[in-house]
């Protein structure tokens, strides 16, 4: 692991790091905010998964999570959204290829050699952090994300409840199996046969598996991507399942980081309360 930069922030440290990823076959960059409480002992961890076109830096620089994380004594990890490098497959469209890993492990050419973002986020990066950051308690994890990252947070948590104690999302892609933000990418990465898409749809997972606690979701009602996000599908799934969830439509808010930064203090507090 290589340290790229460190900066003091709200009494803690915002670091950026890189490592050679075996599952993605390239060097991967990630960021970790460590709150001041980590000086006294291991602190719980909140994973933040970013959306289409983003890197680790978007949420690190724009979401404003550090202030709330320092207040509640929670570390925040910001992974990248896809593999990187000249040898990594890409597409001219913004919503496929680099910056658009969709948090799945690709099985189809040309994506399969590098696009293993599910394994990277769920397995590889936690193992690296456990080895390199003694100040983080990787047994107390929550996960959140925005847009494509909200899809990632919901599906990864719902499929791996033993790894995460809490889950939330900002404007997540809630029903990718029925959206152009989903069908296109899953067809490319996993093949045209929908039976091979597996457990990659949060609305279906809520109906089939449910979640052990409360799901927190914030969505702006002025979001121009509402037809692609399909928040109503998740609302219906939670109602049909009897799933405890707080899904709030925020009047006047759009899809931007102005929206995320407005409500991230609520999300950090939500996770901190469950992570202890």
Q: How would you portray this structure in words?
A:
With 276 residues, the chain is α/β, with parallel strands linked by helices. It has a single domain, classed as Rossmann fold. It contains 9 helices and 9 strands. The protein has helices at 56-62, 65-72, 117-132, 148-159, 180-190, 202-208, 226-229, 231-241, 257-275, and strands at residues 2-9, 12-21, 26-34, 43-49, 75-79, 136-145, 166-170, 215-220, 245-250. A 9-stranded mixed sheet has the order 1-2-3-5-4-6-7-8-9, sandwiched between helices. Strand 2 (12-21) and strand 3 form a beta hairpin. The radius of gyration is 17 Å and the shape is globular. It starts with a strand and ends with a helix.
Uncertain regions spanning at least 5 consecutive residues: none
**Domains, number:** 1
Task: Give the helix tally.
Answer: 9
**Outline:** globular
Query: Helix share of residues?
Result: 25-40%
Q: Nearest-angstrom radius of gyration?
A: 17 Å
Q: Ends: how far apart?
A: 29 Å
Estimated share of beta-strand residues: 15-25%
**Which class of secondary structure composition applies to the elements?**
alpha/beta
Q: Order of strands side by side in the largest beta sheet?
A: 1-2-3-5-4-6-7-8-9
How many runs of DSSP E, i.e. beta strands?
9
Summarize the structure.
This protein is α/β, with parallel strands linked by helices and 276 residues long. 34% of the residues lie in helices and 24% in strands.
Helix-strand blueprint:
Elements: E1 2-9, E2 12-21, E3 26-34, E4 43-49, H1 56-62, H2 65-72, E5 75-79, H3 117-132, E6 136-145, H4 148-159, E7 166-170, H5 180-190, H6 202-208, E8 215-220, H7 226-229, H8 231-241, E9 245-250, H9 257-275
Parallel strand pairs: 4-5, 4-6, 6-7, 7-8, 8-9
Antiparallel strand pairs: 1-2, 2-3, 3-5
